[in-house]
TrEMBL record, chains A, B:
Residues 185-339 form the Tetrahydrofolate dehydrogenase/cyclohydrolase NAD(P)-binding domain. PANTHER family: BIFUNCTIONAL PROTEIN FOLD 1, MITOCHONDRIAL, C-1-TETRAHYDROFOLATE SYNTHASE, CYTOPLASMIC-RELATED. Its EC number is 3.5.4.9. This is methenyltetrahydrofolate cyclohydrolase. The keyword Oxidoreductase applies. Residues 49-164 form the Tetrahydrofolate dehydrogenase/cyclohydrolase catalytic domain. The lineage of its organism: Eukaryota, Viridiplantae, Streptophyta, Embryophyta, Tracheophyta. It is an enzyme of class 3 (hydrolase). Gene3D superfamilies: Leucine Dehydrogenase, chain A, domain 1, NAD(P)-binding Rossmann-like Domain. InterPro entries: Aminoacid_DH-like_N_sf, NAD(P)-bd_dom_sf, THF_DH/CycHdrlase, THF_DH/CycHdrlase_cat_dom, THF_DH/CycHdrlase_CS, THF_DH/CycHdrlase_NAD-bd_dom.
Length: 343, 343
């Protein structure tokens, strides 16, 4: 299905569901199972944090909530995506979101715009979704083409529908102790959920976040350091980035490492403190003539080395990625409940 | 003058200026000079970063700008403070602000409310200043009494007059790379200015901020880590706080240390990396029967020990404190220029 236009993917899924989702998932599960077995067979290797199954659990409970909502008020949460251009990674991410919405019973809408479109065209699409009462969450698939003013466009997005949590008011409220954002950015939220569901102690621990992007590094730092009202995490957090001197020495201090640099295999085994918990946010395509599409995805962490040093590690794919999508669904469900006054 | 009600201080200053500012300043300068001489006489001791003289320089250039504005358009920047209750430290801070405004030729207004007043009364005072065209900057002196909802009150403050930079939209825009806040919180901005004016290299260096308050720790972290559009700082920053395990070990990694914990003498010499640059934000009153008011102010850093280990250190008082006030004036000048379209 990966070669089809997204609007067609959407139509096919919503009309006939001709591509049962079970197949690819079964295949992925098998790989993960093998890793887990290997891990279990050898005490010197890390526990594999299975983001896919954690995400499935969350999606199951969301699906139940959606059914309850539909039965009770005849409505379901709606998510809209604005996609500008045809970046291969963006297409893949949007495709995952379409499928996830379908799985849990959300309404999904997409506005696909050519890379040559104007900022006004993007803002118009956003305004339409802002007004659309059947849409409770909107996201602009980032990155936008270089000539766009990302800030200006995101300013148009209704705060109540900002399910990515990237609006500056959301980020400000995330950063300020004692305030609560309407939405927590999905990858950061997914990382914390993985730590919590894996019973990793966070309070007082040293955490290092590699990468200081607005969408992952910064919010992950903020969450680890403070958390939100009901979940206070209190880690001692450092951010490592491209300008950091001796990044491997700083990284080796981490009890909890979140790698979000976007550099394949940046973090080697020698960068890790023995027993560290490693969350690998990187999703980097590398050429692989043997794979179906000529490439495969690897993380920012050299997985084969990390499993021998860390106490727990997320795989790529199947780690943080599925959790990001699950958190997006969760944020959209929250947005819908809020908008529809459904408890 | 410290025992007088603030409104009276203001009236006295604005009418007759009966208390020449030169006296206390001369006294403080003398102390600082002694420290500097001591530093110069012994190469093993740290350079003292003289925040008072850096602040004086900034205030001089602000005063020149104010004169230019007055001559050109017949207007001057106006700052308003809302003070609830009678906390001793708040009174002292507000007094400093009144005097600083007077020095540079700003209009100053204060709304003094009793601790027993309602949130609505505070919001009304804020709304009045929001509408007052002669006021370009407003600040609510924090902390507010415990029963107040600080967030709710600060939400009323006009973003264009938020010269403290504490509005969540300002903090969000400070946090997000590629965006710019209207105002940078004063103490954080003052710390960076002190580093820059002392020719301290920041890029790639390890910085530790002790304390994660909304008003100092968090914005200082954000500025050190990223900076703003024209000033990119790129330090590798860690935040240490009350839950941090082994804070002394982490602090000892810092090339640049910003101590903002509010704990007198928390940071001992053994916590410092030899040659570190130390900015002490703490202003802690401790009992001192020999001093005029029965107490004196000390920092979060044990100064006597720090001067033997650090390469540079700010004194308390006379370090970061005066810079905070200077930055408040600078923010207010910016706000006035923006509001009056004066360049």
């Amino acid at each position: 299905m990966s070669g089809l236009p997204l609007s067609l993917v959407l139509t096919l899924i919503q009309s006939k569901n001709p591509f049962p989702m079970i197949e690819p998932k079964k295949k992925q599960r098998k790989v993960l199972l093998l890793v887990n077995l290997f891990s279990a067979a050898n005490n010197d290797t890390a526990r594999i944090i299975d983001g896919r199954s954690a995400a499935e659990e969350i999606k199951s409970s969301i699906a139940i909530e959606v059914s309850r909502m539909k039965e009770s008020i005849g409505k379901v949460p709606g998510l809209a995506v604005i996609l500008v251009g045809q970046r291969r990674d963006s297409l893949a991410y949007v495709r995952n979101k379409i499928m996830a919405c379908h799985e849990v019973g959300f309404r999904f809408s997409i506005a696909e715009l050519p890379e040559s479109c104007t900022e006004d065209a993007v803002c118009d699409a956003l305004s339409n979704y802002n007004k659309d009462a059947s849409i409770h969450g909107i996201l602009v698939q980032l990155p936008l083409p270089q000539h766009f003013d990302e800030g200006k466009i995101l300013n148009v997005l209704s705060l109540e529908k900002d399910v990515d949590g990237f609006h500056p008011l959301n980020i400000g409220n995330l950063a300020i102790q004692g305030r609560e954002p309407l939405f927590i950015p999905c990858t950061a939220k997914g990382c914390i959920e993985l730590l919590l569901s894996s019973d990793v102690e966070i309070v007082g621990k040293r955490a290092v976040v590699i990468g200081r992007s607005n969408i992952v590094g910064l919010p992950t730092f903020l969450l680890l350091q403070c958390g939100q009202c009901l979940q206070r995490h209190h880690a001692t957090v450092s951010i490592v980035h491209a300008y950091s001197e001796n990044p491997e020495i700083i990284t080796r201090e981490a009890d909890i490492l979140v790698a979000a640099a976007g550099v394949p295999n940046l973090v080697r085994g020698s960068w890790l403190k023995p027993g560290a918990v490693v969350l690998d946010v990187g999703i980097n395509p590398i050429e692989d003539p043997e794979s179906e599409h000529g490439y495969r995805l690897i993380g920012d962490v050299c997985f084969e080395e990390a499993v021998r040093i860390a106490s727990a590690v997320t795989p790529v794919p199947g780690g943080v990625g599925p959790m990001t999508v699950a958190m997006l669904l969760l944020n959209t469900l929250e947005a819908a409940k809020r908008a529809l006054c459904f408890t």
